[in-house]
Specification:
two-stranded antiparallel ribbon; 20 helices; 64% helix; 1% strand; disordered C terminus; transmembrane; MFS; Sugar_P_transporter; transport
């Protein structure tokens, strides 16, 4: 039986009463935002420390990875004569094949992360998400910290660092399916795109925080750049264990009586049919039994058969391939800013249109001329370059953010599995796991194709964006046909949270 988080029990005892449904939802947004920001923060040390593990002999003096520089972290410590280690690097990464070894570690991490995503999603729909997420965060922190301990234990065996990264990748895979499943349980489809678009800023916040944490302690030894972010995510895991309300029914919020019979007509607006159940005061610290019995997890094959899962998963494969390859070249702050704006804009537009596939495909098609313009006119001036970079980043990251958040949550509560909402984590894992394979493949392909010139790389990216859009063609046609045949049913609905009357929304009938 799932128990109420200890922190919630403490807050109840202090306040003398429980929170409202709206307060719980704000709290869930806050906790999951912090949780996934911790995940991203713990992934940044490697990119910060690479210049220390393998000092590039061709590096131009004064040029270091963000945030090392005059605005954030002093550059002097990198060139400090006291520490000859920073000139010599760290074996085995300071050898001629050092960059290759660092690349192998990155690929191993992404491979374990991608494969672990499918397992994590399957488990997430069967286990208590609060405990599952907390253990995943603590495990991630331990292995990130152990990687850094190699500095103080004087470890120079490549296999040690490889194993630590692979283990960290497996634990990192627990994060995304879990947080999306929690959000999907608390939020219906109305304004889900906008809410999750704003919420998705945790990625950028985590990246910036992780970079600052790793760089701020680099002067004391590169191991601290892993230990501090590792401790950061462990503290986040403890916070999740203490405070995360993962399931609405655990707190007495259940479907309104009599509404279940109308689920086929109103399958998507969970917000309109959730209310506080009459749970006895003394029993609010345990899970609602009738809410628990009806729920079972779905298998990977069953989740793949949900309409829209495979097209969106394949679309995300190419969308992430393009995003991770292109955004890798952008200045750090530009990639984060463009990503935030793109995710929010795509989510808001998809809410207004009630058409996730059409929005995602339109953004991918718009990314093609944007990349072409950037390649053609990006060298005109610095200002033109910055504007074109921002626009391109917006169109590339928009569908990527939309598919991994709102679309995954929509499909995880699809009408074909109505009565069994325990598919959220599994569906999210299938979609984002497939996309993560593209994220690993993109930079790898760029390494080979770039030998033929950067024009060839841009052609690859534009073809990838085109394929991503085309993969959604069937869903786009279905959405447009639906809007044409039923123009009046596309009202976004302005009913309040507790309304018993909902309007048919067509976003799940793809």
């Amino acid at each position: 039986m799932r128990g109420t988080p200890p922190g919630i029990l403490l807050i109840r005892s202090i306040r003398g009463r429980d929170w409202s449904f709206a307060t719980y939802r704000y709290f869930v947004l806050f906790i999951t935002f912090i949780a996934y920001a911790c995940y991203h923060a713990s992934r940044k040390p490697t990119s910060i420390v690479k210049s220390v593990l393998y000092p590039d002999p061709k590096r131009i003096p004064g040029q270091y990875p963000w945030p090392i520089g005059k605005f954030f972290i002093k550059e002097n410590f990198v060139d400090n004569d006291i520490s000859t280690l920073r000139y010599a690097g760290w074996a085995p990464f300071n050898e001629p094949d050092g960059p290759s070894k660092l690349g192998e570690i990155d690929v191993a991490f992404l491979a374990c992360y991608s494969l672990g995503m499918f397992v994590a999603g399957h488990l997430g729909d069967r286990l208590d998400l609060r405990l599952f997420l907390a253990n995943g965060m603590i495990g991630s922190g331990i292995f990130v910290g152990l990687f850094g301990m190699g500095c103080f234990w004087n470890v120079h065996a490549f296999w040690y660092f490889l194993v630590m990264q692979m283990a960290a990748g497996l634990f990192q895979a627990t994060g995304w399916p879990s947080v999306v499943a929690v959000i999907g349980s608390w939020f219906g489809k109305r304004k889900r795109g906008l809410i999750m678009g704003i919420w998705n800023a945790h990625t950028s916040v985590g990246n910036i925080t992780g970079s600052l944490l790793a760089a701020s302690v680099l002067d004391y030894g590169w191991g601290w750049s892993f230990i501090v972010p590792g401790a950061f995510i462990i503290m986040g895991g403890i916070m999740v264990y203490l405070f995360l309300p993962a399931y609405p029914e655990d707190f007495g919020f259940n479907c309104l009586p009599g509404v279940a019979s109308n689920l086929q007509e109103t399958p998507n607006d969970e917000e309109a049919r959730i209310t506080k159940g009459n749970v006895p005061r003394g029993e609010t610290n345990v899970v609602s039994q009738h809410g628990m019995v009806r729920r079972r997890g779905v298998g990977l094959l069953e989740a793949c058969l949900i309409p829209g899962v495979i097209p969106f998963a394949l679309c995300l494969f190419f969308a992430k391939l393009v995003a991770y390859t292109f955004l890798y070249w952008l200045p750090f702050y530009l990639s984060q800013t463009g990503g935030i704006v793109g995710g929010i804009l795509a989510g808001h537009i998809s809410d207004k249109l009630g058409a996730r596939a059409t929005t995602a495909a339109s953004f991918m098609y718009a990314a093609i001329p944007s990349m072409l313009l950037y390649r053609t006119f990006g060298n005109v001036s610095v200002n033109v370059n910055l504007v074109l970079m921002m626009i391109t980043g917006l169109f590339i990251n928009g569908p990527y953010a939309l598919i991994t958040t709102a679309v995954s949550a929509d499909l995880g509560t699809h009408s074909s599995i109505r009565g069994d909402s325990r598919a959220l984590a599994t569906v999210t894992a299938i979609i984002d796991g497939t996309g993560s394979v593209g994220a690993a493949l993109g930079p790898l392909l760029t390494g080979f194709i770039s030998t033929k010139g950067w024009d060839a790389v841009f052609v690859m990216l534009m073809i990838g964006a085109l394929i991503a859009g085309l993969l959604l063609s069937g869903l786009v046609i279905a959405e447009l046909s639906e809007r044409t045949c039923n123009p009046m049913s596309q009202s976004s609905g302005q009913q309040s949270l507790g309304d018993h009357v909902t309007q048919p929304l067509l976003r799940d009938r793809r």
